[in-house]
Structures are given as C-alpha cells and as structure tokens.
Design goal:
By secondary structure, the protein is an all-beta fold. The chain is built from no helices and six strands. The strands form two sheets. A four-stranded antiparallel β-sheet has the order 2-3-4-5, with no helix packed on it. The chain has a two-stranded antiparallel sheet with strand order 1-6.
C-alpha cells in the first residue's frame, strides 16, 4: 500500500499522486502565516506525468497525498 505524504513534506523533484494522477514537483514555495490563526500554505508547481501539463496549485500544509507506484527504468538514446 502506498504511504501518505503531507503537502509540507513535498520537496523539489519528488513524485506524488493528486486526484488519481501522478505528478512531479517542479518548484515549491511555503508561505508561513503572519497573523495568529493563519494557516501555512504550500504552493506547488507540478507536472502531470500522464499529459505533461504544468499546474500551479496551492494546498494547506496538512493536506495528504498518496505516493505513486512508479518504476524507473534506464534508457539510452542512439
């Protein structure tokens, strides 16, 4: 079973699953709250591995994502 990753734990070049599709984290920005009671927000620039589309989404720090079941294989170009 895939483990769960919190949004605050996601780092650059990390893979995660959102809405049933695998994504790759291109860039991440964590914004800390300035006022009391504010929530920490995580802005992620991510690439969908199925379509290649790039999205810029904001999540709450406590949101959880699945770790995708991916296999990495070596490749060579001739």
């Amino acid at each position: 079973m895939a483990s769960l990753i919190e949004a605050i734990e996601i780092k650059r070049k990390m893979f995660f699953e959102h809405e049933g599709a695998p994504y790759y984290c291109i860039e991440i920005d964590v914004s800390k709250p300035t006022a009391r009671g504010g929530q920490t927000l995580v802005r992620i620039k991510m690439r969908n591995l199925l379509t290649g589309a790039v999205f810029d989404k904001t999540f709450k720090a406590g949101e959880k994502f699945k770790e995708p079941d991916l296999v990495s294989a070596p490749a060579s170009y001739l």
